[in-house]
Amino acid sequence: MMYLVLDIQSTAHLDNCSQLQAWVNVKNHSDAISVITDELTEMGWVVTDIIESTITQETDYFAPCKSLDAFNEARKSLLALRFSDNL
Which pLDDT score is estimated for 43? Predict the structure, then answer.
């Protein structure tokens, strides 16, 4: 499982930017970027910066935890996305 923190920008509204946390159920960075790029393109977003990309596992989280929930969601459905509310 890969955990990424990304800066993203809307393709429709160039002043609309956000930060995104993503959990992608693949084994390496390049596969995670491929999956996340395809998904974000369909949603009208592009990656402008990769802030963090790291391998993660279930023991990295303590229940109850929204990040653990996202990890488990990605384990079931390939990926989980969480947009930042503060940008």
Answer: 92
Cα angle 16, 51, 60; round to 5? 120
The candidate with the shortest Cα–Cα distance to 5, out of 66, 72, 50, 67, is 50
pLDDT of residue 86 exceeding 80, the answer is no
Reported residue count of the chain is 87
Model-level pTM?
0.89
Tell me how many degrees the CA angle 6-12-18 measures, rounded to the nearest 5: 25
Show contacts of 28-35: CB within 8 Å, 24+ apart. 28/2, 29/2, 29/53, 31/2, 32/2, 32/4, 33/4, 35/78, 35/79
Whether the bond into 64 is cis, omega within 30 of 0? yes
